[in-house]
Amino acid sequence: MGSAEPRHAGESEELSSLRDTAFDELLREVLGRVNEVLEERERWELLLDAVVTMAAGLSLDELLRRIIEVAADLAGARYVALGVLGVGKERRLDRFITHGLNPAQIKAIGDLPSGHGILGWIIDHPEPIRLHDISAHPESFGFPPDHPPMRSFLGVPVRLHERVFGNLYLTEKAGGGDFTDHDESIVVALAAAAGVAIENARLHAEAARREQWLAATAEVTRLLMIEPDADTRLQTLVEHAMTVADADIAGIMAFDTDGAVAVRALAGVDLPAMALPPAAAADSLSARVMRSGEPTVVEDLAASPWPQAQSPELGFTELGPGLVVPLRAAAGVEGAMSLGWRKDRRDVFDALDLALPIAFAEQAALALEVARAREDQQRLVLFEDRDRIGRDLHDLIIQRLFAVGLGLQSAGRLTDDPDLAGRLDSAVDDLDATIRDIRRTIFALGSMDQGEDIQAEITRIVDRAAGTLKFRPSLTFDGPVRTLVDDTAAPDVLAVLGEALSNAARHAEATSVWVALSAGEAVTLTVRDNGRGLPQDAIESGLANMRRRAERLGGHCTVVSAPGEGTTVEWSVPAATSAR
Predict the structure, then answer these.
(1) For residue 506, is it within any domain?
(2) Which part of the chain is the Histidine kinase domain (predicted)?
(3) Number of domains in the chain
(4) Helices and strands (H and E) in the chain: how many
(5) pLDDT, tens digit, for every residue of 523-559?
(6) Residue 572 reports pLDDT greater than 90
(7) How far apart are CA 288 and CA 295, in angstroms?
């Protein structure tokens, strides 16, 4: 068994040497092919292992990090980056994750790319690309200072069907050569698997967000049903909406009696809703939504015709995109809920499924309507009880007292004792006074609902003002306020009080505020503070509204103010004629 083939007779040494050389080259080529097959097998095994790992329920950040690590191993790249596209219209990079750069290099480079130059070109042309020298491409912008040198380049889109999630960028092939066809094919396979994994991760995150909206809807519905105060209900609703939408500001608007849009609840700014003046209906986004009943997406709230958005002290000028949805129930549209995001948080708005806040608002409006209906039913039961009590007092108690009084009067005429006759007359007078008191009680039972509402509303407004003023204004009532402030005057009384307290909180720098409401021939609201008084060049937009409200009801509004001596606002209109 010889290790070499025997030479033929006459064969030269030179020919034998050539044959040995050809055999060695063939052997080396065979071994090289075998090594390539083994390396390719290892790469595909590594790819398979990566696919299995990506399906193991990693978080999105962990998944992206795993993808670039595997890409570096598969293609033998020194540097790898994964650019994830945002969900907005511009389709620029939302995330840029790197592999191969140490923290010092990342800090020296500065801001990571957002999707321009060659990276932007690949975003606009989502096809694999290989370059011998990245700087030679016509779209290349070059590298920033302190950026490590990079020449060879391989770019592959991460996609699922026609949807592109981002791109894999590989540079600096090991050994200094170029990336090969095999590198491209195996990275394309990795990118395809990564697209499926990223889509699954995003679907999981979207399902979690939907679950949060459903949980918030259920919680708000529960709270709205058990909360007795209407203003607290709206505040609860708007705070939950802002939280679950991850918005920066949220508000609820509704038409007031003058057709202007009033802010009923506000979250996201350190200011009570009552401190915001009403907006003209024609200039309000909320008014358009309430009239049309259709939600509206706003690209730039700061530039929109919402007057409050122009108030720098509230921070509304920093707002960017927004959403205004109607609060629509069976009875119609009762208001509008607005959500706003800062300009630098546009990605949060773009990732929002608009159907979720719309459904949330509809469910909340239905819950508010059910809560009001239940209140009306409870109020009806209360009225029936009051009506029964009033009938019993009139038909039984008063009649019996009246009969007793007549008997005592008759007995007084039968006696000649002046002292006894005087005592009987005094008893009859006491019975008459008792009958009058009972009749006043019967009348109050019939009108107490309206009276309690107006007085309770005034008390609530004063209590809310304490949060802005840092002290509670004093409050007094004089006369039959419950009876003489009717449905026509009540909304204006509340609006004027809210405007006066808002002015005191924002401009007066007062340490005490006194509020008084009296009712007699006229209903008079007085708000007095000890602040710095009105400046000479004060713009009287709010005060002009107060005067117009008074004049419309046949009354007047006077404002007395002096520098350093405070301001007194006296608003007076005729009392309800029928009640008086």
Answers:
(1) yes
(2) 496-577
(3) 3
(4) 14, 15
(5) 999 999 998 888 776 666 678 888 888 998 899 999 9
(6) yes
(7) 9
129 and 235 part of one domain: no
In a domain, 422, yes or no: no
Question: In the Cβ-directed half-sphere of 353, how many Cα atoms lie within 13 Å?
Answer: 15
Is 13 contained in some domain? no
Please give the pLDDT value at position 99. Answer: 85
Give the pair of three-digit tokens for residue 307.
Answer: 């007057």
Q: DSSP of 26-94, one letter per residue? A: HHHHHHHHHHHHHHHHHHHHHHHHHHHHHTS---HHHHHHHHHHHHHHHHTEEEEEEEEEPSSTT--EE
pLDDT attached to residue 312: 41
Cβ-Cβ contacts under 8 Å for 156 (sequence gap 6 or more): 128, 167, 168, 170, 184, 187, 188, 191
pTM exceeds 0.90 for this model: no
Domain closes at, from 320, 349, 368 = 368
In a domain? residue 432: no
What confidence tens digit (pLDDT) does each residue in 42-84 have?
555 555 565 656 655 556 677 778 778 877 887 788 888 888 7
Note down the domain range covering 46.
26-205
Q: Are 459 and 429 in contact (CB under 8 A)?
A: no
In angstroms, the CA 204 to CA 398 distance is: 73
The span from the CA of 328 to the CA of 369, in Å, is: 10
Rounded to 5 degrees, φ, ψ at 461 are -65, -45
Residue 51 and residue 180 in one domain? yes
Assign 3-class secondary structure to 449-495.
HHHHHHHHHHHHHHHHHHHHHCCCCEEEEECCHHHHCCCCCHHHHHH
